[in-house]
Amino acid sequence: MNKDETMSETMKDAPADALTVEPSESAKAQSYHYHVMRRALDKIDAAGERIPLESLATELNMSPAHFQRLFSAWVGVSPKRYQQYLTLEHAKALLAERHTVLETAVAAGLSGTGRLHDLFLRWDAMSPGEYARRGKGLTIRHGWFASPFGEVLAMGTDKGLCGLAFAEECGRVAAWQDMAGRWPAARFEHDPDSIAPWVEAAFEGRGEAALHMIGAPFQIKVWEALLRVPSGHVTTYSDIAHAIGSPRAVRAVGTAVGRNPVSFLIPCHRAMRKSGGLGGYHWGLPVKRAMLAWESARAEA
Q1: What digits encode the pLDDT tens for the residues 15-44?
Q2: Is 162 a catalytic residue?
Q3: Sign, Cα dihedral of 158, 162, 168, 170
Q4: How is the chain split into domains, by residue range?
Q5: What are phi and psi of 300, to 5 degrees?
Q6: What is the separation, in whole angstroms, between the first and last Cα of the chain?
Q7: Which one of 201, 268, 292, 293 is the catalytic residue?
Q8: Keyword Transcription, does the record have it (predicted)?
Q9: pLDDT for 140
């Protein structure tokens, strides 16, 4: 069966509410905030320089006061300060000032319970044999949730979250196809309540979020390395390759980073090119830039 046939089969067998459930009022508000950020990002890029608050608000058809309230509610800092985190130059500054060399972290070891900003993160990796069965025997529960980066499709097993897909750039259908197509033999149930505590912990930074990392052994090694990169810092694909003991596998590392199924919690958005370029991002480059800006602003607030 080819990829298109697999995706069609996945969509045919998907619960009817996988794509049709209406987001809550909170989710709608979060999505609206993200779209404001997305439009602001485009305006700032087009200008090539910092835009005064009044001008930026006018271009977005808002009053300066309303625009400032939205930004402050979303990220915790003013639009004037936030603009510096949205520029492309900020990526290069991150690499120069907050570049984490992973070999040191690797030498220190990684326990089963990691620390990610204010969140306790517990993770459990699937065995190679389980991965080879493409999800057979697994029940994966899913639901749509609000996030600081727009609407997110969350998936989880009994052990923890196994998928987070951001739909603002690619849409719900593409997000569902991508995630469900990774484990075509699994049984999918629409049950957002069962995974809601983990999702809330992930984005509110409080409590404990559990991860069930489903991937090939090499991919899991790459994802474990990403978990060592602190919030507000970045690393490079080549650093990751060295950290996992495969210095020549930079291209394979990039592929594994791109296949990370639990975006944001496994922080693939913190991986950059050695040149300071952002590289790609599976859920859209604007989402990656927004995540880096959001984390940087909070780290310095």
Answers
A1: 545 555 555 555 566 666 667 777 776 776
A2: no
A3: negative
A4: 3-25+97-300, 28-77
A5: -105, -5
A6: 51
A7: 268
A8: yes
A9: 94
pLDDT value for 3: 39
Residue 274 pLDDT greater than 80, yes or no: no
d(CA 299, CA 171): 30
Rounded Cα distance between 32 and 24, Å, is: 12
Q: What is d(CA 54, CA 39) in angstroms, rounded to the nearest whole number? A: 15
DSSP 280: -
Q: Options 3.40.50.12780, 1.10.10.10, 3.40.30.10, 2.30.110.10; which CATH number does 3-25+97-300 get?
A: 1.10.10.10
Tokens standing for residue 152 = 């997110």
Task: Give the number of other Cβ atoms within 10 Å of residue 142's Cβ.
Answer: 27
- Using DSSP's 3-state secondary structure scheme, residue 81 falls into helix
d(CA 228, CA 212): 17
Computed over every residue of the chain, the mean pLDDT equals 75
C-alpha R_g of the chain? 19
Is this structure's pTM higher than 0.85? no
Instruction: Note whether 196 and 188 are within 8 A (CB).
Output: no
Q: Dig out the tokens for 55 from the structure.
A: 């001008």
CB atoms within 10 A of CB 159: 17
Greatest CA separation found in the chain? 58
Strands 271-272 and 161-166: unpaired
